[in-house]
Amino acid sequence: MAGSDTPPAQPPRRPLVAILTGAGISTDSGIPDYRGPNGLWRRDPEAEKLVTYDTYMADPEIRRRSWRMRQDSPAFRAEPNAAHEAVVRLERSGTPVRVITQNVDGLHQRAGLPERKVLELHGTVRAVTCTRCHARSSMREALDRVAAGEPDPPCLVCGGILKSATVMFGERLDPEVLATALGVAKAAEVFLAVGSTLQVQPAASLAGVAAEHGARLIIVNAEPTPYDALAAEVIREPIGSALPRLLAGLTEGG
Fold it and tell me: Could you tell me which residue ranges the Deacetylase sirtuin-type domain spans (predicted)?
């Protein structure tokens, strides 16, 4: 038979899946959350001062305590868990995926998700920045200096105060990162909020924005959130088992 005018079948278009992740996705990696029943802020309310910008800048003792806390942080020993790996599998299946994370641990990237597909709303604990000249360097280098006897290591470029490259209380989010996250939320056809209390703004509002723009909102969190009423589905099961199952279903659904 001569050539056909019928074009070859195109594979079905896969929906854009946006995943907002909070501290709850990393608890299985040994990193405690902040506001849960056993969260850091509930166990030690004073710890919040260590990550409050004005207090950190004004009080050398707070800075010294902060550096000691960083030395002992489980974030540097943590490995990605089953939930992080499930997100990578979804991305490698060909599904368009963007992760918007409130976490600073870098575990999504460690699991194999490309850097360009991860928006770190609250920065990263794996780098430090100077509060005066904004020079950036590795956290490991700064912690090595602390271990060598510098309890509050100054910037090696200008002598200014160093801080973790995270967004402290009292600091604003990077407007460019936030704007990109907002665009992702508006464009998403499926929006998952995973391990987040959805109480910290403006990150939490992304769930509402996604729902308002027609996304199917799915919330996976142990505790109720202010956005549960907008969700098509709310899952209270442990994230380490619930998320891999949920994302495998999205892959199969194509």
Answer: 1-254
